[in-house]
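DNA ligase
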Amino acid sequence: VALPKIPLDGEIWCGRGLFQKCISIVKKQANKVVPDDYKLLTYLIFDAPSHGGKYEDRMKWLQANIPQDDDKCYASVVGVKKCQGLADLKQCLAEVNAAGGEGIMLRKPGSLYENKRSSTLLKVKTFYDEEALVIGHKPGKGNCTGMLGALECQLPNGKRFDVGSGFTMDQRRKPPKKGSVITFKFQELSNAGSPRFPVFLRLRTDLTWDDVLEAAKTKTPISVKQKVVPTTKLSKQHSILFSVIPSRDGKAGKKIARSDDDNEQPSSSSSLQKLDVREECPYGEKCYRKNPDHLKQ
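Predicted structure tokens:
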């Protein structure tokens, strides 16, 4: 099924918790492709950049021009829900996190599409932070030639990974030494238990690695929690919050349209910079982490 012949802003999606599966399908060479795997993919459409109208008008146009009821169409318009305030935002973010989602997007009502970073489109995510031991350095390339490219690090559970972003140029010239402790933030763990998108925050001169290991005995770091690995027996039945996803009936092969927001209006509101959407730290004031990026205490 042909999509409208105009630019569409969207993303290929496979299901919550299936980021690595999606990447694996897309990156496979032609001679190694499993045809049925492509049936798991959906092109989720966020916006129509060249439409020229306000956000609400663009969404109405997409919903009218993307064939949602065609069983041969593997594209779908992402639905929206109107934000009712800070409490609603926090609850929505908590539900998305609990379901394995990455975060939510806030779009200013009546806004135009901007082909750049925009204050009318804001991302809300939950980040985790943790300490790691520096065990090595990887050289930089390009503008970072002769400086630090990435820190080789180790978690309390022994998992090794690299941290390559978040550094100033001065820190790349004089990186944390081997044996030092750093604090970094990340979005989630991969299926193998490695932090995804780790970002350097600071050098912890107030902590030794023995301190971190001792603290890990009483407070379980996210890095040692069991990672739920999605089943490999997939079917196109995964849902995404506030979206109509073209799922397939196992017997008839018919597309099943699902929606959590049939009666909602397509808009969102509020400013993100001043919102504290961090989750509550279960250890409160007794938690040894005191940095501003940690959970709310």
